[in-house]
Amino acid sequence: MKHIIKSVAAFITGLVVLTGCNNSNQSNSKSGALASNVAEKVYVAPGEHDEFYAFISGGFSGQLSVYGLPSGRLFKVIPVFSQDAEKAWGYNEETKPMLETSHGFVPWDDAHHPDISQTAGEIDGRWVFINGNNTPRIAKVDLSTFETTEIIEIPNSAGNHSSSFVTENTEYVVAGTRFSVPIPQRDMPIKDYKGNFKGSLTFISVEPEHGHMDIKFQLIMPGFDYDLSHPGRGKSHGWFFFTTYNTEEASTLLEVNASQNDKDFIAAVNWKKIEEYVNNGGGTMMPANYAHNVYDESTHMATSTLKKEVLTVNPLEVPGAVFLLPTPKSPHGCDVDPTGEYIVGNGKLSANLTVHSFTKMLDAIEKEKFAGDAYGIPILNFEDVLAGSVEQPGLGPLHTEFDGKGNAYTTFFISSEVVKWKLGTWEVLDRQPCYYSVGHLMIPGGNSQKPWGKYVVAMNKITKDRYLPTGPEVTQSAQLYDISGEKMELLLDFPTIGEPHYAAGCPADLIKPRSKKLFPLEENNHPYATKSEADTKVVRDGNIVHVYMTMIRSHFSPDNIEGVKVGDKVYFHVTNLEQDYDVPHGVSMIGANTSELLIMPGQTETFLWEPKQEGVWPFYCTDFCSALHQEMQGYVRVSAANANTPLKWSLGEDIE
Amino acid sequence: MKTTLKLMTLLFAMLVISCGGKEEKKKEKFSYSKKTEPVEATTKKEDKTPASQRVDLTSKGVGPIKAIELTADIDQTMAAHGEEVFKKMCTACHRPNKKFIGPAPTGILERRSPEWIMNMILNPEEMVKNDPLAKELLIEFNGSPMANQNLTEEEARAVLEYFRTLK
């Protein structure tokens, strides 16, 4: 008997060995991401690079995160709208002006929709634009340095949500208001909203060589909520499409009151026509107040300028430029397919997914088949512009992207899934669940004429049990699906920062070769740069003290400073003399009411220290730089306000 | 009964073997290469002269510079350019006449070949890893690494010419 048990046990062990031994070529019979072939699809071997960059909005963190696909590895969090002590963004003297607005210094925003610059309808990998939703702003991130180099505030806007999408040659980056407000702002009863509040759609021109942004014009539209937008492309290049909700113009309990109309609108804007009108002197210059902040890579410094006027355009003055396409039930995403023919209105309370035809729209406009007007803007007939609808594909459609092979992928928030369907036949081809409650999705190059239809990333709103719990607040979850085959396949969950609302991606090869490794010292035009140790000095001007300091592995020069007094304002202007890749140094001073500095090779940054007590106070390097990093330190002697300690600085006088 | 057990064991063994087959295949591809001759350790333990003062005019070091011809006379224009580059890029760690973070360059051409000097400037990471003298220098100078300041070859050559003027 015992033998039988033993032999059975041996056989079972044998089976276990067998099954455990080689399942690498097993097919999909094992479901989900546990199957090893799925793991291989997202495995990027140590030292290897990912195929795609994904720029995922940081939502309420205010930042932009950079991930690799398919691995889902986080490479960098680029500070944009929020102070970041790690990188001294908004803390050092150089970048504080980047967060200036007409409301003063605003250290935070809600970052929503990154979009990569395009040339001839294809992603060119030069810049990423992203909107600050709360205090309306558009930022530009330079993809050679992965740093925010420009932020422009949007006047007459509130809840800058239908932003920041670019036209197919990056002629414009567009910023539409979510909230309508009195334009210009004034003291008036809220209940008088209807007919009095307006919504602004802002077209910001982008200078082709350096990407310099400037508000070209603002279209002053009826007081709806403008939710999302996308540019026309290919045949529809020259148009821009905006979804609207609250066409009821309610100012309270929008949850109910903004869902009364059977249909809201997609506003189709012929921006080329308006551009022409404006170039010929059209539009009305209006007093305004908005900040334009520019970071100069040569001086390593930002400047903030308050602008005082903006050119506004009344749509009624440009006939044939704006039309309204009825679209069921509070559409959210407004997505244009790679050919530019189809405009998808993701009516979030609608059972069906509505797709408009650009050709039909032009035809209806030409034949002047209007159903009516809203404040003078012609409304087209729903049936005249409808290309088709995807019947009951799911609940709560939010956003659609395209694979460039004739398929569309739509997220459904309420039914928590990604649905693949076919353009033209409108049939549903596949559906995959999301964990949980998916918001937006991203296919690299999705918002262009040339998507790379290999992966889709779904950005989920609810995480629940997907990861180890971390108290009441849990990370937001993104999910990667392989869409190269007929059916979608879930490959990976990965955590994200803040609440990602949107993402943009492209092949790494578009960006990698242009990524800077350091800043050449020779090109450093910072007014307080110190380019050699011979030039280091400490200069007193009243109670302001400027320290011209350098750093290199592994010392500061000077590292002993005397003659600083209580009540002084001491500016440390620190230049990293290194000229090698990945050798930043950090510096921090005890008691300084600010963050550390993290200084890249060849760069100069400044922090302010206001010593409050006599004594001898240390500073040190905060970024591990070499075997002698721990030796990279120095002292400042602080004397009484009325002391006569002479100003002295030195480095290694006693070395011999 | 025993037979059953034997059968089971055999089956189990076969399963294990079938599993290991793949690994064996890999091994077949493995070939033994000729054993390299052990490098004779010639470093004399008793030689206590610090690396910075030792003279080795034959080693060219490790890096892009294989052969440099020095002119009989110092090219003063090039040397002046080299001095400028040295001031900008090197003085954070090197003083012309005295030991600082790193050694002083004065008299360096009496101790090192021109190629070694340029390779140390242009290729410090590999030098401190693979060149015996550079390795020792790293230790002698407190493990303070020679920073790669990304000089061009032309700039490094000019710095070398400047070093020739330092007596």
From TrEMBL, chain A:
SUPFAM superfamilies registered for this protein in UniProt: Cupredoxins (SSF49503), Nitrous oxide reductase, N-terminal domain (SSF50974)
Subcellular location: Cell envelope
InterPro entries hit by this protein: Copper_CuA (IPR001505), Cupredoxin (IPR008972), N2O_reductase_N (IPR011045), Nitrous_oxide_Rdtase_Sec-dep (IPR026468), Nos_propeller (IPR041114), NosZ/Cyto_c_oxidase_sub2 (IPR051403), WD40/YVTN_repeat-like_dom_sf (IPR015943)
Gene Ontology cellular component terms for the protein in this record: cell envelope
One Pfam family named in its UniProt record: nos_propeller
Keywords: Copper, Metal-binding
GO MF terms held by the record: copper ion binding
Protein's name in the database: Nitrous oxide reductase
Natural source organism: Hanstruepera neustonica
Automatic annotation (TrEMBL), chain B:
Positions with biased composition (Basic and acidic residues): 27-49
Keyword Acetylation: no
Keyword vocabulary terms for this entry: Heme, Iron, Metal-binding
One GO molecular-function entry: heme binding
Gene3D superfamilies noted in UniProt: Cytochrome c-like domain (1.10.760.10)
Keyword Metal-binding: yes
Superkingdom, taxonomy of origin: Bacteria
InterPro entries cross-referenced by the UniProt entry: Cyt_c-like_dom, Cyt_c-like_dom_sf
Stretch list, region Disordered: 27-54
Protein name: Cytochrome C
